[in-house]
Design the sequence.
């Protein structure tokens, strides 16, 4: 790269700081940042070795470019691959990855680099958090969902037979690189699913960003500067909440807007990605959270209508009826909700909204109220 | 207990604070504190449920008393038992314990109570650190070794085929209860092995405490107020180092005095407790660290002699020749040392001493120098 081109790349890179004291880090966002990242990583950990954790699909797609740039920056690498898909967030894969990192002689000053989507990030972040009681890790998310959600904030973990993400750690990354050009290789379905989490930040507390999404979503998908802006806005919003409440003792729960519904739907469709992927479940959950708020007399019907209409324009589902194969009865959906990690002593906690950009935490919502709402939804009311 | 007796118990309880900011906690030391602890736990986590993790031996010995006191204090309990011994610090036992805690419906505001020695504390502390991304845990150490070393400072973990304690977390307890009366049930061998770690604190940076140990060790074993004083002094010393360097980036390495030798000896005796237990390996390691310091011209021979003489008086081993079945050659011992977690980029780091109470971190000690020293030790020089 010429100096001029390098300068241009630098200008186009957006830096979002996550000021978490001794755990502070930066999120770098822009097109073609993968190779740029190598230099930043080398500065972060001079002389370190890096274990790149990725999945079988991405290993061929992006890993060689990253490795070549890291080698040029003087960082020796080892590559560890996992099978793609949620099933890799298991105890067995965790043990295998830990032993793989030990066999690769990753020491306390070395790095684990997660190159992949949420599964790769969650699993390898957790392994990094416990390897020799904690080594640094770098997130290079390759899906939109991971860029705007799971790679930022330090939540890592695996699933148990008792539920999702029940075993894990809060382990902040040392650096997050969001190369938005990597998203060009995503399927339309996968990109749109990630987009649901982008819209979520507008709905939580940024009505102006929701307006912007309504006007610019096509350009976000197309991959122009609007995509970088959307990713940066999402990361900035998430970072602000994480800084206020790193360990989810309070405000961070706002990020669960739409998620109590979404997790229940994912459970009822047996985490079968042919029927429903996480972002699609979130899209339905967002629409439901606003309609539920409307039904409770908290939110204007106009706002709930705008939310559903925007998701529909984008091509995302927004109703229980949109789930292929159906969801089960209202009672089954409520039962699936009460298995959620966010349940405290049996009470249901929801994120509700007084309108677009005005969401809030509502603990102790009666299960009966939820069931009646879902019944009316299923009846198509 | 009458009010008078309760007051007396309170007076005899020694409180050692561990001021680690938002992770601060107290160590409570004294005879018959097990039941007293229940009230403190109830204050710490009102309304919480507690999972008591213990081993098959201790389950009958101490668990019923603890459970009965916790129930009186309004804390519901579940008991989970593991098999005694180092083999329980495995991935398999970790997975089983995590799933056991989930099955017991331990939530984020609940507690894990480790009632046992180092194995119980290390395993259950690690499980607590990752359960729902971290729940609080309380250490109730039942061995002298655990009371003065492993229960304080937040190091938790399990072993991998690649080495000991390679997978784990820094997860500080919320409370440590050292009931020194529990130590009455230890075998003489186990008590003395723990005593090696007590003496260590005098050798690190407290010459006056080493003098006190020489004068009072019989009363420490007998179980009078001297035992409480010894445990409290050790805990206070460990807490001070942990507060200076929680994650072992510097000073905390001083706690490894004698341990580079000790870990090698444990490895070479295949962690066979019939041949050598950890504290006995540490006793030999302490004597070797001082004789090695003497050989390097760093430490007066008189001090090295006093260390070995004290260990011998107590009935602890202090020479390589004291290991039943032998240790292997000098080359094998050095090889076993280089497999240690404390090796940074191949250089051997030792804790050496300028004299009793004057230890320091010596990075980059040449392996050849170590080998020649061990050869002379094996030759009985």
Sequence:
């Amino acid at each position: 790269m010429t100096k001029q081109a390098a300068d241009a790349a630098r200008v186009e890179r957006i830096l979002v700081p996550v000021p978490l004291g001794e755990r502070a880090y930066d999120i770098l966002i822009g097109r073609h940042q993968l190779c740029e990242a190598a230099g930043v990583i080398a500065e972060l950990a001079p002389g370190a070795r890096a274990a790149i954790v990725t999945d079988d699909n991405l290993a061929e797609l992006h890993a060689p470019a990253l490795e070549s740039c890291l080698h040029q920056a003087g960082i020796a690498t080892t590559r560890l691959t996992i099978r793609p898909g949620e099933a890799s967030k298991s105890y067995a894969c965790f043990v295998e990855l830990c032993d793989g990192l030990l066999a690769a002689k990753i020491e306390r000053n070395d790095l684990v680099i997660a190159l992949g989507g949420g599964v790769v990030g969650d699993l390898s972040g957790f392994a990094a958090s416990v390897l020799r009681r904690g080594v640094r890790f770098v997130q290079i998310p390759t899906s939109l969902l991971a860029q705007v959600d799971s790679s930022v904030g330090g939540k890592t973990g695996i699933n148990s037979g008792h539920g999702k993400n029940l075993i894990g750690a809060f382990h902040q990354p040392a650096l997050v690189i969001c190369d938005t050009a990597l998203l060009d290789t995503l399927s339309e379905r996968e990109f749109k699913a990630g987009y649901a989490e982008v819209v979520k930040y507008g709905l939580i507390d940024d009505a102006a960003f929701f307006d912007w999404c309504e006007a610019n979503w096509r350009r976000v998908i197309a991959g122009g500067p609007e995509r970088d802006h959307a990713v940066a806005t999402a990361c900035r919003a998430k970072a602000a909440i994480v800084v206020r409440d790193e360990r989810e003792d309070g405000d961070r729960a706002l990020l669960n807007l739409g998620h109590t519904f979404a997790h229940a739907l994912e459970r009822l469709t047996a985490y079968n990605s042919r029927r429903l992927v996480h972002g699609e479940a979130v899209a339905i959950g967002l629409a439901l959270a606003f309609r539920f708020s409307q039904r409770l007399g908290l939110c204007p019907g106009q706002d709930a209508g705008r939310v559903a209409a925007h998701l529909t324009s984008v091509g995302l589902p927004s109703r229980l009826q949109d789930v292929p194969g159906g969801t089960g009865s209202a009672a089954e959906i409520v039962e699936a909700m009460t298995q959620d990690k966010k349940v405290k002593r049996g009470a249901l906690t929801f994120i509700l909204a007084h309108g677009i950009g005005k969401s809030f935490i509502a603990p102790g919502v009666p299960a009966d109220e939820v069931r009646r709402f879902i019944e009316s939804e299923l009846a198509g009311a």
Notes: The domain at 196-378 of chain A is CATH 1.20.1090.10 (Dehydroquinate synthase-like, alpha domain). The longest strand of chain A covers residues 163-170. Chain A has two domains: 3-185, 196-378. The interface with chain B takes residues 91, 95, 98-99, 102-103, 107-109, 126, 129-134, 155, 157, 160-163, 165-170, 247, 341, 344-345 of chain A (CB under 8 Å).
